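Q: I have two molecules that I believe assemble together. Could you output structure tokens for the complex as a whole instead of separate predictions?
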Amino acid sequence: MSDEERLERALHAHASTVTPTPDWDDVEQRAEELRRRRLRRRAGFTAVGLAAAIVLVVALIPLLNGDERTTVAVTAPSTTTTGPTTTTEPTTTTTPSTTTTTVPLPLARPQNAIWPFTSGASFRDPSQAALSFARDYLGMPAPVVESTALSARVVEVRARSDRPSVTSVTVAESGGNWYVTGARTRNIDLVSPEPGKRVHSPVRVTGTSTAFEAQVNWEVREEGAGAGRKLGEGFFMGGSNGQFGPFDAQLAFTTPSRPSGTIVLFTRSAEDGSVVEATVVPVAFG
Amino acid sequence: MMMQAMVEANEAADEGLVALYREHYVSLVRLASLLLHDVGTAEDVTQDAFAKVHLAWGRIRDPEKALAYVRSAVLNGARSRMRHLQVVDRHRPEPRRDTQSAEAGALSGEEHREVIAALRALPVRQRECLALRYYLGLSEAEIAEALGISAGSVKTHAHRGLAALGKTLEAPA
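A: Yes, here they are, computed for all two components at once.
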């Protein structure tokens, strides 16, 4: 007998021993149970889908608002491109896709402006001016705008989205462009010198502060000097661990070649050493 | 009026399915029992398969294909139980015995029991192909449709299964 025949016989012999009893009612009950289970699952999916849709909409609202702001910011320079052609001013190089334009004659620049530099870009958007200042002047790693209070001429910036401290950047508008005139963090409250004061080396600084291990870093910079270029630097102690303590320090710096500059007081992250927050005041030298 | 027509249509459809059930229930349970360890599970799988078809009955356009549809549902159910039982068996200290093995053994004889045991030791696809071919007498094309694989694969599985079965049965106990 071949294997195939043996198999066929064995299968039929075994199968003939199986004598089940049909029960159609049981099939109907199972079908009903299955239908209910599918409905429940479908309802579950629908609920999850609805929840996801709500989350998506909520998440999109700020993005959409952000888009509007971007649209305004982007369209602003394109109106300036039409300006030179109609008024036949000197040719201005503009890039419609960015918010920056080169301005050859910064006549409208405010006296106390510290950013952008006279030779630098100009900003049609106060947030862009503040972000550029935080990144390129202060050296913050990945600054983000926390809030904008234009009536108070303040843009609040975090050095990185997860940083606890906020630096309030003061801005001023002139001739359609936005400038940074100073910055302040509540953790470093500089009482003197006041903004715009005439100072010479060594300059005495007083105020209150709180910082990690009480250490507040300082730099004196002259106009046109970005992050890392300074006339003098060092640190002094104030309060720590959230407790405000007074500071009173003498900051010595080399002779400036320009008539104005800034005093920059800042703290660094204990984690990676990057700039966390800063108080910046403009000063005159001489 | 329309509602009544729908109810009548449903009842007619149900009648078709009930007829199919009466005619093929036993052979489908037997088919499942060849693949599975015990008759209880085979019955359970077959009842579930008919319940699924019952729900899908309105979507089955071709009543001629209804049997093939139920058969596929039984095979799918049996396959999923086999996987589950293989996991359970791995954690069982004693090998599972067929619930009807004593009776079945007495009726079908020692040799038949050996053949069935050898069949159940084969990989799932080979087991399915051999059961469908030599118990239900399906063609390669029908087996391919029932299992959702190509006719060429059916041929390969059946050939390998049969060869492995012969080898096992030839080996001294």
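A: One point stands out. The interface with chain B takes residues 3-4, 6-20, 22-24, 26-28, 30-31, 33-35, 38 of chain A (CB under 8 Å).
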